[in-house]
Amino acid sequence: MKILVIEDEQALLESILAYFIGEGNICEFASNFASASEKIALYNYDCILLDLGLPDGEGLELLSQLKQMKKKDGVLILSARHSLDDRLAGLDLGADDYLVKPFHLSELKARVSAIVRRKNFDGDNLILFNEIKVDVSAMKTSVFNNQIVLTKKEFDLLVYFLANKNKIVTKNAMAEHLWGDEMDLSNDFDFIYTHVKNLKKKLAEAGGKDYLRSVYGIGYKFGDA
Ligand code: CA
Questions:
Q1: 6 Cα–ligand 1 center, Å
Q2: In whole angstroms, what is the distance from residue 100 CA to residue 105 CA?
Q3: Does the reported pTM lie above 0.90?
């Protein structure tokens, strides 16, 4: 998952980042309104963790910005106990859920995962695509019911392809999504090719059909349509 953490409490920000990065996610952060606003305009995230009280602006205003830009990022509001009105306003503005501080990081992770599943796969833990079966929460993949072993990057890549089934995904978007925001500035996407090639090989070795097409000069398309 690719997550943006918008939080100005340094200690909380650091513990959230350490936790999600430790779980193998791509995490970006913003500790004020201005940098958060810039990031949400430039990049896309699976989920944005949004603290409403920022030193230089209102988190709710960021929700309005996302809405104006017609962005599809999931949003989980991190709010103080007393601010019920803000939470309701946030949900009204399109936030997916909220969590009251203080919270356990494991609870935070469960909420984030639920939002991402809801956005991408109608809430299912299990993604089925012909002979391919992916269990998102257990991080297991099988082809014709035979389990295959993927690296974390290959797994994330497959989930990303399945979330964008039958659509062209650009190398740019893949780099940004799977490696982080600064990677979209890179001109050399050879590292993507290596992971795609390995994923393709493992699916083929398990007897899977070849669903992956490379779209010359642009990126890839995964699907059967
Ligand atoms: Ca705050």
A1: 9
A2: 12
A3: no
